[in-house]
Amino acid sequence: MGRLAFFIFLCCTNLALAKIWTPTIISDNMVLQQQSTTTIWGWTTHTGETITISGSWDNIEVKTKANQGVWSAQLPTPTAGGPYTVTVKGHEELILSNVMIGEVWIASGQSNMQWTPNMGLDNVKEEIAAAHYPNIRFFQVPQRKSDTPQDDTPGQWSACTPESMQNFSSVAYFFGRKLHNDLSVPVGLISSNWGGTPVEVWIPDALIEQDADLGPAAKKVPANQWRPEKPGDCYNAMIHPLSKFNIAGAIWYQGESNRANSKSYYKSFPLLIKSWREQWNKEFPFYFAQIAPFDYDKEKKDIKAAVVRDAQLYTMKSVPNSGMAVTNDIGNLKDIHPINKQEVGRRLALWALAQTYGVKDLTYSGPVYKSMEIKKNKIILDFEHAENGLKMEGKTLQEFYIAGEDKEFHEARARIKGNRVEVSSRNVKVPVAVRFAFYDKALPNLFNQEGLPASAFRTDDWEIDLD
């Protein structure tokens, strides 16, 4: 074979072996965030190759050049609709089919977010049978851990059917179904969760290990073979690979596993939100479920989980563009995985509809403690999200406690006065502080008139002793 013929043979062989590919999150059946610029990226075996990308909604081509085999381009998206195709051209052509344009949300956390209909759900047979929503799309991130940030994850997009829904996150499904029905847009749901995980595994490890408070606190989480506990393990393998993919926001259900280091949650949970937003380079909305009452240790006044709930309330109040769905009326003291996931998803969706999508005249939160006033031997409590008044279920308000300067809390008498609550006790002549539902298995019964429950809270900032 002559030199020219051999050179042509090598070129043809290389072209035959050449390849262009995208991460699994960029694939058939995906949902792209509407009215935005979304990143389409991938790899090629041809260094320096020009890649052309277009969407069939307008067929406008966007060009980029691969750098050391990696390419990325920004593709503008239209208003919600579809199905469309996305075409990627280089030395070969990729056509991504059945692509919808709509709203994309990540759902993450531990087992209560992971919980699927097949694991336990109210009215499960009817819910599965009704799950015919071809324009709701699921992407399930498999449970993997890594010491270093990964660029890709296994997985594939699939349409919502009774078969796919029953093995997908129930909370995510009911959240997405509410958005889909109320907004009349396609919805993409990315489920990335791992039962039993503490918050630290979902945060870049350097942010935990270099922090004087969080580094030692992370070591308090007991080791367990069936879950990661090393900081960054899940972030690296299950969140970082998604971080170029444009999203509308995130929903989160986690916290039970941080009872072991609950006081650090005041710092670690806001850090998780901050770190994800920095990785996406977007201040996206972050809505989360407050953990439900549960009988962890058979001790009536154990408060480790109550401190986590308080840290979640603190996070909602201190982190912009965040919101919290309270679950203290739909828990189960005997089951850490309560099965009314419909209501958890609905309450998270109310936050999104009101705060992200601007739906008017929608009550999206239960009462949240705002301020207090001391009047002789009583404390008067004011609440946000109680404009139309408060109500209770049952004959008397439960789970209110009051203390004086000695910091000893006594069970209190509480009465609703319009949109305020009046609290007192014969045992406290000069009150200074109130706590509401501030122990792990508290079952409060305070709601606003629209039926959403009040969050547990404390009016004091006293040091909490958990030893």
TrEMBL record:
Instruction: Please provide the record's keywords in A-Z order.
Output: Hydrolase, Signal
> What Gene3D superfamilies does this protein map onto?
SGNH hydrolase
Residues making up the signal peptide according to the UniProt record: 1-18
Task: Specify the Sialate O-acetylesterase domain's residue ranges.
Answer: 103-348
Q: Does the keyword rRNA processing apply?
A: no
Q: Does the keyword Hydrolase apply?
A: yes
Q: Which InterPro entries match?
A: SASA, SGNH_hydro_sf, SIAE
Q: Which domain of life is it from?
A: Bacteria
PANTHER family per record: SIALATE O-ACETYLESTERASE
* Name of the protein: Sialate O-acetylesterase
To which species is this protein native? Flagellimonas algicola
